[in-house]
Amino acid sequence: MSASSNQSKQADRLPTLYIPHGGGPCFFMEWTMGPPDTWDRMRASLQEMGRRFEDVSTLLVVSAHWETSGVTVQTGVRPPLLYDYYGFPQHTYELTWPASGAPEVAGRALDLLLAAGIDAHEDRKRGFDHGTFVPLKVAFPEAHIPTFQVSLKRGLDAAEHIAIGEALTPLREQGVLVVGSGMSFHNMGHFMGRNVQEVSRRFDTWLEASCAGPPIERLAALTRWELAPEARFCHPREDHLLPLMVVAGAAVEEPGRLLFRDEVMGITTSAFEFGKVGRS
């Protein structure tokens, strides 16, 4: 493919996004574990995402809350909601977000993964977990965009998840917005901890520099993320970081940038965007 043809294809692609999804159903309850405005800035950033991308054809979400032995693609027509959080007010287990599935597009995603030699399967029954429906209910409250999830692969190998994203890249030229949903800091034992904000900021600063760096250097850095400052403190288990690898892989030759940063519950957390950033 010529350089001009490749540039033309990139111009037609939607960007990819890595977003923080907060704590459980935090956007839909009175918050008592800190200041009442704890999640307001994150909520506003998700609402802005919804305004920017209200006309995309499909949402593909890689959530930190779904891992399978291979890669699994959600192919149901009308996925239910999975209230996979614990200890929250009763009304948060009655939330609704009736987005339809996207079985045809999900089928194309499955074919792309298999064609890339990735062990992949479909699941017609699984619902949307809270890593999907909680942030998307904020961003797209009318639930008007067909949505499907792609799982993480057990073992949580960074390079494998970058390759998963690469395989899914063609969907971006078909009106599909690829979203990774996690948290750039996820050490549950240290939210609200003393002196944690500075520790989390060191990792987050490294993450910003890596995501905004030249694509080849970015992929090398993300593949070796465990070498970053405070990496294993910020992610004792990397399930909430791996969605970033997928969306970075789906924009493997394209620029990245910091989209949003917040100081919340004593830690620093960020969102990132890859690819074309012209939508406003």
Describe this structure as you would to a colleague.
The protein is α/β, with parallel strands linked by helices and 280 residues long. It has one domain (3-274): 3-Layer(aba) Sandwich (Protocatechuate 4,5-dioxygenase, Chain B). It contains nine helices and ten strands. The chain has helices at residues 3-11, 40-52, 103-115, 130-139, 158-168, 196-212, 215-223, 231-234, 242-249, and strands at residues 16-20, 58-63, 67-68, 71-74, 120-123, 147-149, 152-153, 176-182, 256-264, 267-274. The strands form three sheets. It has a six-stranded mixed beta sheet with strand order 6-2-8-1-10-9, with helices on both faces. Helix 2 (40-52) crosses helix 4 (130-139) and helix 6 (196-212) crosses helix 7. The longest helix has 17 residues, at 196-212. It is globular, with a radius of gyration of 18 Å.
Descriptive key words:
single chain; 280 residues; alpha/beta; Protocatechuate 4,5-dioxygenase, Chain B; 6-stranded mixed sheet; 9 helices; 10 strands; 34% helix; globular; disordered N terminus
Secondary-structure blueprint:
Elements: H1 3-11, E1 16-20, H2 40-52, E2 58-63, E3 67-68, E4 71-74, H3 103-115, E5 120-123, H4 130-139, E6 147-149, E7 152-153, H5 158-168, E8 176-182, H6 196-212, H7 215-223, H8 231-234, H9 242-249, E9 256-264, E10 267-274
Parallel strand pairs: 1-8, 2-6, 2-8, 3-7, 4-5
Antiparallel strand pairs: 1-10, 9-10
